[in-house]
Design goal:
Oligomer: homodimer
Largest interface: A-B, 51 and 52 residues
Mean pLDDT of chain A: 93
Number of strands of chain A: 0
Strand content of chain A: under 5%
Low-confidence stretches of chain A: none
Helix content of chain A: over 70%
CATH topology of the largest domain in chain A: Tetracycline Repressor, domain 2
Largest sheet of chain A: none
Structural class of chain A: mainly alpha
Number of domains of chain A: 2
Shape of chain A: globular
CATH superfamily of the largest domain in chain A: Tetracycline Repressor, domain 2
Order of helices and strands of chain A: HHHHHHHHHHHH
Chain lengths: 202, 202
DNA sequence: GTCTATACGCAGATAGAC
DNA sequence: GTCTATCTGCGTATAGAC
């Protein structure tokens, strides 16, 4: 029944991703995934042996999806202020396409730290180069002297947090008005760039 | 066997809180909680009828714990810069005592938005007063003109995110060195105050 | 109030027919 | 490769003895 190789694998993987990301690992049953994929439960085991293995592949896929575009920005020759701006745009675009991803990843890593170790081992992220550049610009007087890691965490925080906390913010700060949050998020890109540059420039 | 009224309830509630916060709602079994409390499984049902009801009480308790101290800061007559500084200290102290709380709350609200609605209805948070004060100081030229909600989200993001993302950051940015992260977090308070004030002052 | 015993369903996983 | 049937264990919850 399968024309292309791995067609069914991808079909399952996509379905599993949607459910896992929405309901979490322990909150998802194999039946949920089978229903989402429109197939039979044993087929999941046939193709992925176990829920554990299926989840691992989903996690890895979701996790890695967030990196290539960002790496491209970080490895470019642009000054920090430009990288920052591009990072905000790139990351925001990804998050708009998969807004549930941050909370999914943060939660899985928190409740099962082992899941991450394997994933990052396979790709070798190295933020050191970026730290060096930041320190360089601090030396040159372009940026205010500070701990580059604090800058990095701030950047991630301000971009990612609103997505992870959206349901909270929507109810507490926006009275449940979802459309208003959308507007807020649209304007946020411009705000962030200004806000951030003001803090780090010398 | 119970001397004080509600002694057993509290014992269970505390145990349940520890397990729920660590493993999440769906990742926690009643047996886990009974073991943690050192009691028998049916006793949980006797005191709380169902896992659902037990969880609801835990969630509400955890959620509300984060508010009174913060509310005190927000309702004071201090200028924004002072409130900000106190907020960072207060929130950080709470988070240091229960560092897993952010990811617990964010995840539960994301996977089951209904849980939040009930909790906030009972306490009536109102950030509008704070927004007005921020706008006031903007009018007076103390703060740079901006959207107060963006400021608010930035503040929450920079304080809360490092706790929610700690396992991630620890592995990716600190090479798994936990002690170094502790040091980083200690220094972060001072950094945050400077960083933030630079961004918002006129 | 606290226990043992138990009911019942659904979870993940596999056997085996087609 | 895909299905039905089935195994086994664990999940929540309750009945009933003490």
């Amino acid at each position: 029944m399968e024309a292309l190789t791995g067609e069914m694998e991808n079909k399952i993987l996509d379905a599993a991703t949607r459910v896992f990301v929405r309901k979490g690992k322990t909150g998802t049953s194999m039946q949920d995934i089978a229903d989402e994929a429109g197939i039979n439960r044993p087929l999941l085991n046939y193709y992925f042996r176990s829920k554990e293995r299926l989840f691992d592949q989903v996690f890895y896929k979701v996790f890695i999806r967030f990196l290539p575009d960002v790496a491209k920005v970080f490895n470019s020759n642009l000054p920090i202020s430009e990288k920052l701006s591009k990072f905000i745009d790139t990351y925001t675009e990804m998050l708009n396409q998969s807004p549930l991803t941050p909370i999914f990843i943060l939660n899985e890593v928190a409740t099962n730290p082992g899941s991450l170790v394997e994933a990052i081992r396979k790709m070798g992220i190295d933020p050191v180069i970026l730290f060096k550049q930041i320190e360089d610009e601090m030396q040159k007087g372009i940026l205010k002297k500070d701990d580059p890691r604090q800058i990095m965490v701030n950047m991630l925080a301000m971009v990612i947090f609103p997505y992870a906390a959206r349901p909270m913010l929507e109810h507490i700060m926006f009275g449940g008005n979802s459309a208003e949050v959308d507007l807020f998020m649209e304007k946020r890109n411009v705000h962030l760039k200004e806000f951030f540059i003001r803090s780090i420039k010398a």
